[in-house]
Amino acid sequence: MRSPWSALGLAGFAAVVFLWSTPILWMMLASVRPESFGSLDMASLVPDTVPTGDQFRYAFLDGDWAVWFTNSFILVTGTLVVQLVTISLAGYAFARLEFPGKDVIFYVFLLQLMLAPPVLIVPNLTTLVSLGLYDTLVGVMAPYWGSAFGTFLMRQTFRAIPRDFEEAALIDGASWGQILWLVLLPLARPGLIAFGIVSVVFHWNEYLWPLMVLSDPGNMVLTVGLVSFALGAEGASDWGLIAAGTLLVVAPLAIAFIAFQRQFVNSFMSTGIK
Amino acid sequence: MTYIARIATAAAVVALATAAPEGASAQERIEFMFPAPVQGKLSREMQRIVREYNAAQDEVEVVGVFTGSYDDTKIKSQAAAEAGKPPAVVLMSANFAAELAMNDLIVPIADIAPEGTDLDAFLGEFWPAVRPNALFNGELYSVPFQNSTPILYYNKEHFAEAGIEAAPETWSEWIEAAKALAKPDGERWGLMMPSNYDYNGWLVQSLAMASGGSFYNTAYAGEIFYDHASTKAGLKFWRDMVHEHGAMPEGVTDGKAVSTAFFAGQASMIVLSTGALSFVRENATFDYDVAFIPRNVRNSVPIGGASLVSFKGTSDAQKEAAWKFISHLVSPEVIGGWSRFTGYFAPRQTAYELPEMKEFVANNPDALRAVEQLEFAGPWIATFNTVAVRKAVEDEMQALLSDPELTVDEAAARAQKNANEILAPYVAETAYKF
Amino acid sequence: MTIGEVDSTQSTARPVGATPALRLRLRAPRLQSLRPYLLLLPALLFLMLFTYWPMLQVAVASTFQRRAVGGEGDFVGLGNYGRLLADEDFLGALLNTALFTAGTVVPSVVLGFLFAVALRRSGALSGLFRAALFFPTLMPLVAASALFIFIFLPGLGLLDYYLAKLGVRSINWLGDPDLALWSIMMLTVWKNAGYYMLFFLAGLQALPEDAEEAAMIEGASWWQRQRLVVIPMLGPTFAFVTVIALLTAVIQIDHVIVMTQGGPNNATNLLLFYIYQQAHEFYDLGKATAATVVTLGFLLALSVLSLRTMERRVHYES
User: Fold this and answer.
1) A37 in contact with C, Cβ within 8 Å
2) Helices B332-342 and B40-56 meet at what angle, rounded to 10?
């Protein structure tokens, strides 16, 4: 196969990628630059000073990283696992079954699609308190467990799978549960992965809702933790510390992405769903 | 279906596990919510103070809860209270106490202090300047913990270079100095002041007070003086710095940009909170000093900072615990230590009688300057719906900083009109209700 | 196989063939008809608790005006809606949101697509480029916003520092009312284009190459190939990404809270921030809830519309 671009195009694109990466390159530099509060050349992308590990040292001193990472990890996986169950079941019902009220219920589902939790902070906190879930990670996850977007996506995914597979399984005497689990879900993998990425990225990065629900320092998640030591009020900003802290938050996901990106992208392609 | 069952069980287990520890011990467990004050290491210091307190006694267990910015803190504590989990102690922006009291969200300190506590004598130990914001309708609703005033930071090296001998004391000196210090094309600014929301209103108030105004009616929550001569003088001073004298950048400048520009030597004078004193002291790589905010008609500044409040709806035992913890936090030793660590001044006068405090002030004349300015300090804007009323003038100030065509009279008139609309329901229910 | 064939041609037909269905029906007729509802139950349960119930509360609250937080309030009917529509800030927020949505969704989706086309083939270099472009997605929005406060810092920040080397005077990116919203849009596009690239990459992997090669043999230019072959075949991906981008544009406010609080002079006041401020800072629950209901109305229309489009695209595909 011939090269997809000319040398000139490659250079141009490399320049775009470089420009795109400058904030991150600067962040990496700033995290090891000694003067982190303000100097004339602090924006320079040229390494001009002896690197210091101070910012990372402070970040480790100030942050409860093990707790934050564990909680963020639990939050993201707990949210996703339950979502995958609820959206697969509901998506299957909408894609493959006929029942009275189907259209109405479908639109009722869609209502949730664009609902931002900050709008419903107080009523949702009240519900969490009455369920005994205030200040728990489950409380942060629960409002997301019914996902309209995920349901819609799974419905689309299932509908795009030819029915022949199920027909065959049915004739072999498989129950609907077996069909869903053994036939449809494996074929729906691209849809599940796409939703998984959306969900993980969203919840890993979410700040306001966990800040509202969680109080105990032992329940704190990464975003709230990062803000707690890196962002100050009253006009002060320690840019180096923000940089170091942000890098620590991003690192695990970034490493995972770099290591698995090819498998990641290819995993979508197994069936014709995009 | 077993899959769902498994998830449900797991969820239930997690829920139970996290819910169980509450109320199991004899210790009274209370939540203490606090925002990020100036920078991250203060959050750590605050957690250290909480841990030390927990270790030193066994009646109260305090859970220190970090709650983001001042605004986030307000939202989180209110949302928690409305949802039925009122926090026992919250460190809240000092001018919010009146509004929280008006909305019946917090309890008077008399409700949590043991019967017979002489609260007048207690408040008498605090600087006169911080007392009005602690009261609502004559009753004590909050206990000042970390307070500040705006103060002028200046780069002494730049002053020497421009041949300016002393810090400006009057507005005309201030303008002259700013003009002399500024270099063209934004290479160096003579003066920078944060004009983002919150900081903005505080500094407009400071300029209005320096012009002899009182900015808002301290005795009645339904009046604000935006179209008065004193406020207009403040608006004009600030906009002229940009459009007439070219000594300040156009548009809105965030507090973070102000401190960064000062450290980088790109701004010769800045106005920031005294709460940033330690931050500046530790990070300025040049010779700097602080001075009073120059006077137009008089020396006068508003106080700022944060006070401790207790939300409504806690149990009697929690109230008792809240008072114990608050008393500990504002004890001269703790409040003085916090002041030295952060740069905020200690609102409790008696803290300055401690030997370690005397020594500190002697070694750090800038800290002394901040305390001396207190003599000229007055209360911080606190009206019905404070944030919305404050925003009415902030929007106009921001417009003035960006738009050279907009006149001060127009801006002040619109700010007044918008603020009056926000205050109208309160006025209808109070002053006009006869 | 006749039964199966009949079934598979009609997407609305019952999935079960006659024989197995008969067997099931004999065994448990009640369960059979309840099954769809049972399948929907888990999702519906959470939606009811955390969406419909609070929304009902919001709708009811929008007809009351409370004087104090926690107070009962007086019934005012549609009064709050009247006050809302008379509020310049609300109308401004509507306009800002429309601009922000259009100005972030279009460029980030287009860039995401172009990045994906450029990085379509796997290789060491494209792996590195993909990672570099995807990195911003992994950064929490609060952190990215703090970082971009620095980037936008007048005079000293990354942008101005290098623009100065090109002779451009210092620009107050976040402090100029004419620029602030665009600056926040810049951050949003930067943060999301790589995210959308990922979905386009996946879509491209699944495209059969013969159609494109045929077009190439016939002498179609690069742009013609994209326009006539690749883009139509990626219809479903475009629809999916657009929905995600719309969602992202509307439900995120961390950047506004961290960077501008809606300023200067309301220039970056977005709907969600308006609601947040009315509810939590101004104690005007009447206005906040009315604004929520209005916003939800818009969003619902928008989402139904975009999902319908997405559905049509998918049908067209399959």
Assistant:
1) no
2) 160
Compute the residue count for chain C: 318
Residue B358 confidence class, pLDDT cut points 50, 70, 90: very high
Closest to C46 (Cβ–Cβ): which among A142, A208, A226? A142
Closest CA to A34 of A58, A13, A53, A61: A53
Instruction: Determine whether B238 is exposed, middle or buried from the number of CB atoms within 10 Å of its CB (0-12, 13-18, 19+).
Output: buried
Residues with Cβ within 8 Å of C183's Cβ and at least 6 positions away in sequence, in order, are C148, C152, C173, C174
**Chain B residues with CB-CB distance to C under 8 A?**
4, 69, 71, 74-75, 78-79, 82, 99, 102-105, 185-186, 195-198, 249-254, 256-257, 260-261, 264, 266, 385, 387-388, 394-396, 398-399, 401-402, 422, 425, 429
Whole-number pLDDT of residue B39: 57
Give the tens place of pLDDT for each residue, A27-51.
999 888 887 677 777 888 888 778 8
Mean pLDDT of chain A: 83
The pLDDT of residue A139 is above 80? yes
Max avg pLDDT among A107-116, B273-282, C118-127, C180-189: C180-189
Are B263 and A39 in contact by the 8 Å Cβ rule? The answer is: yes
pLDDT of residue C17: 41
- For residue B307, list its beta bridge partners: B92, B144
- Contact call for C162 and A43, based on CB within 8 A: yes
Residues whose CB is less than 8 angstroms from the CB of residue A263 and which lie 6 or more positions away in sequence, other chains included: none
Query: Could you report the predicted ipTM of this complex, rounded to two decimals?
Result: 0.84
- What is the C-alpha to C-alpha distance for residues C274 and C287, in angstroms, rounded to an integer? 10
Rounded to a whole number of angstroms, the distance between the first and last alpha carbons of chain A is 24
Tell me the average pLDDT of chain B: 89
Q: Cβ contact (<8 Å) for C265 and B399?
A: yes
pLDDT over 90 (residue A164): no
Cβ contact (<8 Å) for B82 and C70? yes
Distance between B253 CA and the closest CA of chain C, angstroms: 6
Q: In chain A, which residues have their Cβ closer than 8 Å to the Cβ of B256?
A: 235-237
pLDDT at residue A3 greater than cutoff 70: no
With a threshold of 0.90, does the pTM exceed it?
no
Taking an 8 Å cut-off on Cβ atoms, the answer to whether C156 and B266 are in contact is yes
What is the pLDDT, as a whole number, of residue A119?
A: 66
pLDDT of B375 higher than 70: yes
Cβ–Cβ gap A26/C158 under 8 Å? yes
Q: Work out the minimum CA distance from A61 to partner chain C, whole angstroms.
A: 19
More confident residue, B38 or C246: C246
Q: Helix, strand, coil shares of chain C as percentages rounded to 5?
A: 75, 0, 25
> How near does any CA of chain A get to the CA of C178, in Å?
23
Q: Indicate yes or no: CB of C172 within 8 angstroms of CB of B249.
A: yes
Q: Under an 8 A CB cutoff, do C20 and A97 touch? A: no
In A, which residues are within 8 Å of B11 by CB distance?
A: 78, 82, 138
